[in-house]
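pasting for ref
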Amino acid sequence: MVILGKTKIKDALDKHPELKEVLIGYSAKFKKLNNKLIFNTIAKWATFNDVAKVGNISICDLLHTVNNTIGEGNNLASNFPDCVKEMNIQTKNDNPDWYNDVKQFIHFDVRNIDGYFFPEIINKLNKLKDGQALTVINSFEPIPLMRMLDENGNKFYGESIDEREHHLTILYQKSKIGIDSKIDWKKQLDLFPELNVIGMLKDPFEIIVKKAQSIEAGQGFVLIQAFQPDPLINLLKQMGFETYIQREEEMRYKMYFYKPISKDTSKVKGEKVPVVIQSATPVTYPIIMKMLQSKELMSKIEIKELKVWDETEKHMAWIVNGKADISFSAVAAASKLFLVGSDIKMMSVDIWDNFSILTRGYKANNFGDLKGHKIHMPLFKEAPPAAVTNYLMKETGYNPEDFDFYYGKPFGRPKTIMNDFIAGKADTVLLREPEASFALFHAGQDAFHSISYSDVWKTINNKEIKLPNAGLIFKNDFLNNHPDTAKLFVKVMKEAIDWVNNNKKESAKMAFDIMGQSPETIEFFLNRAHFEHIPTSEAKDDLFEYLKVVDKKAEKNLDKLKKLFL
């Protein structure tokens, strides 16, 4: 039995009871499995994907761990992309028909309850009367409860207020606080809905941008943060917001953002196209930040989600599940997803020549100089970085089996490798951008950019064939339904890339806060990065040469892959 993301916890533990201790040791999120009542209720409906989502756990880490324990680790890869697919819960984007007929909503806020509140929810449900509905307010999306309701045929409606507040109404119209546009908005600050990101463990950038995009003209919101994020404030100003800042105390700022009603009545605005955008890597942050300043683009799209992932498997899951309309994705990942049935098209290559061998304490002039050192590698030994490394070594006269590669457990994370290099725990690493630049900047004078994969690649091919690392992909449905929006997105992206390349200091000032680095570090990264927008129709030689190296399946299906690249 290969355990997948859609496998229910109880089903897995019934067949492999030994996994219980493995899960409890894996994360504190699983410790409640020792409670028989919890196990017999929550675990019955919760899937591994549910737990990973609620607990902010990497689903790939989790699946590798449990499958390796039961001897199914080698079979996990053969189940791609099913391993990261989710079991869909039938929910609605708009209020269901029964919602407007509810006469009374009973609210139950469980966010401050430390104990097990599931029985109390059931008890309150059993006490409901005709015309009533129960709204459960939680700090996370209660997926197991929703799955139970779905399987039992209950009517329910789920809504995420922000990252820390979720409403589940069971058989809620979100109260909309209105600002009177006829009165000075600065005299109505107490009416601004709050978005408090103090203490948030994840980067709140995507949440803030999504909130800003949802604000209608004549309305606003207040952002509460522990510091004053000047780049973000400047970005929202470019998006048309007026700003007022209050410093309440040393580590608490209130930043009010108000979107005035435009006095220009000459332009008739149509409805915005809802878009889910994601990137597999933080390397795209400077480009995205500039694109968000495009009034032309922002007047045409409504960003429903904007995610920049550290974990590539999460971005792949969004493509597999059809959630992402537009993705900045690795070429190899796009190829793999296309060949297993994802209905996507790749429009351009925009990030080139992205991998480098960094050394610390010694300078390597070729692969031979790496012998005797442990080479810390991203991902796993079947992944594209390892495939390219093996190819380059063989083509330059070296046997990869003579080298000591280390992939981490269960696989190497670029951020972990970067931090180990900076801390001196690793003296030889393969890193992509921006982690490669961050590592070099912070490691000091004994750190070296020893081997550029693009330079070796060009030497082997004896011509200017580049390493096509990543580019822009669209869900095919989005291209068919919104061709003009897609065309505009590509146009604005190309303009953003050109601007970033020609204004690196200004771009660094715009993106440093979001990327968690100093302006000097980001400028250093931008001076090393290779951003260049090339339509895939003009880059097919580069693409096919690269894919023949990194993926044997792709090499055998080049004719089929021609349909991926527009």
